[in-house]
Each structure stands twice: as structure tokens, then as C-alpha cells.
Specification:
alpha/beta; Rossmann fold; 5-stranded antiparallel β-sheet; globular; binds S-adenosyl-L-homocysteine
Length: 363
């Protein structure tokens, strides 16, 4: 068992079962042994690959979206460009290259990264040297905020609830009977005591039938509400891209990836990436509570097509070798095809109510 596994086993034997959210928070974010604290998980050598790591086109098109949105809002200056969980900094490096062509934009821009992983922050510094780093969102300076979050919300902890005859009961993580101190074995179990009130659950799942599993991400709601409140105060826009569902729905979406393969979510805490589908309806409700308007979600494939991924691919291919041109076609397909990332991945934007139209969200 991993060092983190032993730590969690001790915690459970001393204090009792912990929520799935608590387990996930420790597995990913424990300050010493958490998954993100100890490694760069991205790419072929790692556990999973994200859109900016597939092609430079992704970050470039998001750069153009930022430029259009900034211009449509009358070029606020200065403004904050922030990214949540920037990974290796690839998306922002590609976006900044595209933004160089926009008169006045780079002078107005103040770049801020929110990142908890020291390993990834070091990679970001290599690729984007002149940002300011934060390990929490609330230390960002006040001002017009343009914010990007790609595959950030799927890494935030979720609570899980199962509908029993007696009501909605939370799923907790405990040690099974044949666990030992050296080899703990974690299993999910349902608490006997139901929730006193189902206010916590999304209104559209509260009446789901017995046996259904519902998920709630309090951390995601808090981020969405805080982002929305800043945009409501100062203007700007947020672009949230992730895999998940447009409408709240029941179902167990907690998953663990290790070396690009699915593994048991509770088996090797700290060694596998844990994520859950993002509930965009819940994000939109939280954003509304913060005073912002949610646009979309639209599917990633449709969004990238509207922003001009075809034209960008053609322009790159005009200067490429035949082999590079083939890679560009493969990347475009991975990002946009319905059976790849085009449909499961969705894009939502937040603005002030009444803000001008947004590229990719009209019609
Ligand atoms: N956006 C990048 C990386 C996605 S992986 C890309 O698309 O390639 C998730 C990122 O979020 C990592 O950088 C991880 O370290 C960061 N992260 C996870 N939980 C976080 C939290 N609570 N606060 C800040 N960053 C977090």
C-alpha cells in the first residue's frame, strides 16, 4: 500500500469512515503524498492527456476567444488573465502567442495562475515565466477577470449519495474486514443515517428512484460562485472546459486513471488520477447565485469549429511536412470528433448579465 494509503487507513481507524470527497481531496491534494503534489501526470508517459497537450491549436483558439471577448467589452485595462490548474502551462503559452497580434492587449494583461502542485508550477514557470502564482483563488487581485479552466473542475472532490428507502444516504469510505495496518483495503459503504434535507442535491435529481446515486461537488460550486461574483463586480468572462453532463443526472462517475487505464478508485490513493464528471447545470446554478450569467454549455467540437479550428489546421498544414500534416489532422479529429473529445467535453462561459455576445455561444 502507498504511504498515503497508510495515512488514510490510520485516519479512518482513529476517526471513523470518511466521505468520498474527503478521500478524493486527500488522494489528489494531500500536501506531501497527494497525486498532484508528487508528479507531472500529463502526456504519453503519464496517466492522461489533455486538449492543450494534443495540439497547439487548442490554446491558440482560446487565445483568440479571449481577445474577441476583451475587445467586445471595450478593452478593459489593466485586466487579469487567470488560469485555474494550468497543468504544464501549455494552453497559456499557446494562447499568449496568439494574443501577441492584438494591439494593446499584452500591455493591459496581468497574468495569474492558481495552482497547488509544486511540480506543475515549476513546469508552468518554464513555459510561461512572467505569471504570478497563487495556491488559492481568493488571493487573486480584484479587477476585470478573464479566466480559463480546462480540466480543472473534474479534479475537485465530489460527495456521493445513494437513494435508499429511508432517504438519501451518503457514501463513505471505510476499511474492509480483512484490512491490516500494513495492507489496508478501502471500500465504499452507505451510512445508515439519511440526509435531514435534500437541499444539497440538484433539484432535478432529488426525486430519483431508490438505488440511484447522486453526486455533489461543494468545492466546484464554491469556485463557480466566487468566479461569478468577481465577474459580476468587475466584468470579464470565464471559460470552463471539461468533460461532463449539461444537465444534472444520477450515476456514479468517479473514475481513476493510471497510465491511461481505468483502475479501482479506492485501491491506490495518491498513485492514480481521480476525477468525476462535471455537472454543468450545478455550475450554472452556483454562477447565478454569484451574480453571473452562464452561457452554454456547448460541445467542445462545435465550439472549436465556430472558433475556426479547420482554418487554423489548414494554415498550419500549408507550412508542414506530410507527416506533420497527418498529425495535425489526427489532433483536430481527437479534439472535435463526437466519438473522441468533441461531444463529452463541454464549454461553458460566465459573464455579467447583459454583457455583449460571446464567440462560440451565439445561436
Ligand atoms: N489545465 C491543464 C491541467 C489539467 S489537470 C491541462 O488542460 O492540461 C488539473 C490541474 O489542476 C493540475 O494543474 C492540478 O495540479 C490542478 N489542481 C487540482 N486541484 C487544484 C486545486 N484545488 N487548486 C488549484 N489547482 C488544482
Amino acid at each position: 500500500m502507498t504511504a498515503l494509503g497508510q495515512h488514510i487507513a490510520r485516519l479512518i481507524s482513529e476517526t471513523g469512515p470518511i466521505s468520498v470527497a474527503h478521500f478524493m481531496a486527500l488522494a489528489l491534494g494531500h500536501p506531501k503524498h497527494g497525486y498532484y503534489m508528487t508528479r507531472d501526470p500529463l502526456g504519453a508517459q503519464g496517466d492522461f492527456t489533455t486538449s492543450p497537450e494534443i495540439s497547439q491549436m487548442f490554446g491558440e483558439l482560446i487565445g483568440l476567444w479571449i481577445a474577441e471577448t476583451w475587445i467586445a467589452q471595450d478593452r478593459p485595462s489593466p485586466f487579469i488573465l487567470a488560469e485555474l490548474g494550468p497543468g504544464r502551462g501549455t494552453l497559456m503559452a499557446d494562447a499568449l502567442r496568439a494574443l501577441r497580434a492584438v494591439p494593446g492587449l499584452l500591455d493591459a494583461l496581468r497574468l495569474h495562475f492558481v495552482e497547488t502542485s509544486p511540480v506543475l508550477a515549476a513546469a508552468q514557470k518554464q513555459n510561461v515565466p512572467n505569471a504570478t502564482w497563487h495556491d488559492r483563488f481568493d488571493t487573486l487581485p480584484e479587477g476585470p477577470l478573464f479566466l480559463i479552466a480546462n480540466e480543472f473542475f473534474d479534479a475537485l472532490p465530489i460527495r456521493q449519495f445513494v437513494r435508499m428507502e429511508r432517504g438519501w444516504c451518503e457514501r463513505f469510505v471505510m476499511l474492509d474486514d480483512d484490512s491490516t495496518a500494513d495492507v489496508p483495503h478501502f471500500v465504499p459503504a452507505i451510512t445508515p443515517v439519511p440526509l435531514a434535507s435534500d437541499d444539497l442535491l440538484s433539484p432535478s435529481v432529488r426525486n430519483a428512484p431508490v438505488g440511484s446515486l447522486a453526486e455533489v461537488s461543494p468545492a466546484s460550486g464554491a469556485f463557480a460562485e466566487d468566479i461569478a461574483a468577481r465577474i459580476a463586480r468587475h466584468g470579464g468572462a470565464a471559460l470552463i472546459i471539461d468533460y461532463g453532463h449539461a444537465k444534472s443526472a444520477v450515476g456514479d462517475t468517479l473514475q481513476a486513471l493510471r497510465a491511461h487505464k481505468f483502475v479501482d478508485a479506492f485501491e491506490t490513493p495518491g498513485e492514480a488520477d481521480l476525477t468525476a464528471h462535471v455537472d454543468f447545470e450545478a455550475l450554472a446554478l452556483a454562477a447565478k447565485a454569484g451574480g453571473a450569467l452562464a452561457h452554454g454549455p456547448v460541445e467542445q467540437g462545435a465550439f472549436l469549429h465556430t472558433l475556426g479550428i479547420k482554418e487554423r489546421a489548414e494554415a498550419l498544414k500549408a507550412k508542414a511536412t506530410p507527416e506533420q500534416a497527418r498529425d495535425i489532422d489526427v489532433a483536430e479529429r481527437r479534439l472535435t470528433a463526437r466519438d473522441e473529445m468533441g461531444s463529452l467535453f463541454k464549454v461553458m462561459a460566465l459573464t455579467r448579465p447583459g454583457a455583449p455576445g460571446l464567440a462560440g455561444f451565439e445561436g
